[in-house]
């Protein structure tokens, strides 16, 4: 699970959990064609319904995971999925498929009049031929479209829909609900003259039978305009191939096709509406064909087309300015428009998807401010604020000092949340009212694995936290007004994974009743439903109904048996779901659930409460979608069934009595229901299909004819809100005005909920435990074992007074007065005089590393002590130190720039008259490692130590780790030094590999070393004309080494296997040759080996001294090879006894070395004398990066020098030079090779 702060409203699911605002201004949801769900040969048919709720719900929330419609959160919470935006990705992910029935019939179905068998989800269901009743999948959320075309009918023939009233055998046992449906339909078939009918009209979208997706928008309240966009989405191509735009101006009685107005060849993909002006419509074309948008300012009557140079993935409309829009493109670029899409301007690049927000009036400085998260790398992001039309670096703000975790920015109401991971553990920060960021204080040992921001309503935060020992449950925590200090509200709340990988929390906020929530909690491996009336302060189980639907007594005693509800909701705002409530109908809750010891998915029934959860009644013994009509004055129920229906049920008395009405003459597969925005509507449209090949059927239902009159004052009755008799809830007694159950009248659009509130005296139940306190079994709040109450005086670090907690705090939004208020309320006291305690020093990024020359921000926190009288001294460890008079002066952090690489001891000291405290931080200042070079001898002596050194470029990059592999050893050697000594115990060719790790960068080099027990080595010099043709590159040295070896073999007759030659880097050109003994002659005879090598040396040196070794470099360039008079390194004898000649030669080398040094010092005064001491920068760079070869690893003829491998003392005085990583001189670079010359 991706780690990060996520936001979800207080309903049963979190769509995209960190999104706090919906991304388009109209409700967009997916109603799946329930009659098109079988097999993989089905194409999708969806209905994306748009209303004016100001929310774009984007994707369907498929609670079943099978493409069926999940049910809407009737609380009206924003559950937007902004990534759907203007792309079809979301549709594709949730589209159901329409079966290729022609192929199925021709290959598998008999041609006679027999049953057809279709398999779905592992079960076999039989669909009857025309003239008989068929069954379909029993999943109430999974409707199957029947095929009515005869197998032998001609292609393209469309038989009329036929629904018989007879029954026949099936391959499975028919559920009771389906048998009851059969009986009811038989009865209604014979008595349709007497049945109750609704005023309705049907309109078919002719020509759109192949279209499998649709988007619907009702222009707004008091408007008769409905727009509908139907599309054919090709799942193989992944794009829309056809589209039609329909418009109705009479509440859906008739529709006009507008394809000619938008362009006959134009393919439309999405429809948007301004949330501030419903007359403004925006249509997006399919980007696979063209990237354009069409704009209308007259409710879709006429359109203007505008080209786009980018693909729109999602839109975010300004909550107040009707023409201001943010558009997120496919290339992570954010664009803005202040002309309702007519012109676009680039705002910022590398913007994280779904992480951009409009400013909020009263909190941000200007309305055109944008909050956004920009991506820096896979592990780093930045929170920046930008001006709408002028997002330059000079105008950017960085409210959070440092990097944040990717996809963690959440801006909701007055709060801003970010996450920063340190040492593998996340730290969550919150800013209230755009103030400074402060770490969120959860109980000390919460150790969250995951955190979701559930709600930020009414000046407090509700967060769901999955702790280290939880897997499928979350704990609910609530904060005080600042969003900083959190206490536990409910443990082990159930969660589930949504179809898009989003976490859905089983928590539901009841609409219309402030402070009322329902939650499903796991207790002893049983899921039970709990209810609270005071924002989580107290929870209890639900009392089950006393009788079932048939009046039979239900024996269910708390706490062993209770009512449990399914709390999953749908993104469809006009289709009721598992649970539904409305702001305009307080106290009425409709939900599906079960009775027993725990919540089950079997034997699900529908329940209703009219008194806010105190008593419940069973209304159906199977699942229904229940919608609110006339602001809750009536309820409409449509049965969840895979079968076509023609009836709905209507209740005027809060679900006590349900009347059955027919809404169409022919049964219809219902895909969705759309009403005029707001529950006050009396007009409703049902969308469906007669068969899987039919057009969209739009049935408009007018309920006005069934109401007798307008409601008058005598039709209402007062209702007292209570919790099992307790009327004081959230500190007040509330009395609502409700419609009498016997009244059958229209409340109308002017109706509003009337509430009379009377404050109550405060009691202990109006207070929850304060931060650091836990509730005991007796209800008292006592300090947790980890909490020191004195630490709550930490506000003294910035103020003169603090609140001394009593262990309790008043529930947010609780309006009680008097009573025990004074006893439980924290008391403000003067800060005590005390020594500083709890000093913290961290970097703003929470890291212990920083890059050279970058601004490092240090944050200093003091838990206890009088901040106004406590001075803070910060020593940066580089000779610079600053003292601040008080803590408040460094709230924004202390910035410092380091000028050298190294490890710095940074200290902060807090001091006042009563004492002091010091804290240390060791900060690594690093530089980017560009290249490495492994310096190693070309030939090494067996069983003798060899020095191997790594040269870094730049030479100082900070803390470095070296990882070595020698020969065939699989286990590496890890060192902190760049030099190692190694002994090769076997003769032959050995490969040495080294990797250098500096920060996040790892580089590697490899050298091949020839290992022998005995050998001789001598230096070679060349005629001066060779230097004129020496480019000093590895390939040239390799080729010349081969030519020199061949010339020496020809001149001396030495076996080529006994001779090795390598040209060393640099100028003047120098080479070295190695003589190896003949194994056949000297094997096991050490005394002969020395003699044999001496003879070979004399032979080769004689040829060299006689100028017999020559080669032609190019026509006209003849090069002579000489023997150098002196070796540049001591001769090493591998025998036990040291000969006198070897000692003499060793002494000679020392003398000559001194002479070379003197010559080097005065070489500019001696014309014509060239001693190798320096090389060109680009040549050395070539040597470091050249491919591995024998010549590359040969040491150079330069004096051996010590490499800088430790940090030198840093300058204490400020350096006025330009700060950069330490690099060699740009023009001259000393050789990085360490020569090792051996003579045996």
UniProtKB/TrEMBL annotation:
Keyword list, A-Z: Cell membrane, Cell projection, Cytoplasmic vesicle, Disulfide bond, Endosome, Glycoprotein, Membrane, Postsynaptic cell membrane, Repeat, Signal, Synapse, Synaptosome, Transmembrane, Transmembrane helix
PANTHER family reported for this sequence: SORTILIN RELATED, VPS10 DOMAIN-CONTAINING RECEPTOR SORCS1
Family per record: Belongs to the VPS10-related sortilin family. SORCS subfamily.
Superkingdom to which the source organism belongs: Eukaryota
Protein name as annotated: VPS10 domain-containing receptor SorCS2
Gene name for this UniProt entry: SORCS1
Domain PKD: 859-918
Protein topology in the membrane: Single-pass type I membrane protein
GO biological process: post-Golgi vesicle-mediated transport
GO cellular component: dendritic spine; early endosome membrane; Golgi apparatus; perikaryon; postsynaptic density membrane; recycling endosome membrane
Positions with biased composition (Basic and acidic residues): 89-116, 175-195
Compositional bias ranges of the Pro residues kind: 152-162
Extent of the signal sequence: 1-29
Region feature Disordered, mapped onto this chain: 73-195
Entry's localization field: Cell membrane; Cell projection, Dendrite; Cell projection, Dendritic spine; Cytoplasmic vesicle membrane
Gene3D superfamilies in alphabetical order: 2.10.70.80, 3.30.60.270, Immunoglobulins, YVTN repeat-like/Quinoprotein amine dehydrogenase
Transmembrane segments: 1142-1160
InterPro entries: Ig-like_fold (IPR013783), PKD_dom (IPR000601), PKD_dom_sf (IPR035986), Sortilin_C (IPR031777), Sortilin_N (IPR031778), VPS10 (IPR006581), VPS10-sortilin (IPR050310), WD40/YVTN_repeat-like_dom_sf (IPR015943)
SUPFAM superfamilies referenced in this protein's UniProt entry, alphabetically: Oligoxyloglucan reducing end-specific cellobiohydrolase (SSF110296), PKD domain (SSF49299)
